Amino acid sequence: MDFDRIRADVAAALYTTPDQIGMEDNLTDLGLDSMRIMTLVTEWQEQGMELDFLSFAEETTLAAWKAAFETRQG
């Protein structure tokens, strides 16, 4: 999955644009609560990604999420 798509999905969940979210911004501080994270992870799982909700809930920056996606894409 393309990371630009991930960033766009996160931005949509926050009702903003992708360029408004920095790689090191805390997504929780920007308003992304655990239910929205779970919804995003579930959508990505349905698209074929093997993801662990807890890793996304614990590290809530785009940089951490990008690393998680890269690890799973191998």
Write the layout of secondary structure elements.
Layout: H1 3-13, H2 34-46, H3 53-58, H4 62-73
Describe this structure in words.
With 74 residues, the chain is an all-alpha fold. It has one domain (3-73): Non-ribosomal Peptide Synthetase Peptidyl Carrier Protein, Chain A, CATH 1.10.1200. Helix content is 57%, strand content 0%. It has 4 helices and no strands. It has helices at residues 3-13, 34-46, 53-58, 62-73. The longest helix has 13 residues, at 34-46. The model has no long low-confidence stretch (mean pLDDT 93).
Which structural traits does this protein have?
mainly alpha; 57% helix; globular; Aryl carrier domain-containing protein; ACP-like_sf
Number of helices: 4
Report the CATH superfamily.
ACP-like
Can you summarize the main beta sheet?
none
Mean pLDDT: 93
Which regions are unreliable across 5 or more consecutive residues at pLDDT < 50? none
Question: Roughly how many Å apart are the termini?
Answer: 12 Å
Number of strands: 0
- Overall shape: globular
> What is the CATH first-level class name?
Mainly Alpha
**Percent of residues in beta strands:** under 5%
Structural class: mainly alpha
Helical content stands at 55-70%
**Count of all domains:** 1
Radius of gyration: 11 Å
Give the second-level CATH assignment, the architecture: Orthogonal Bundle
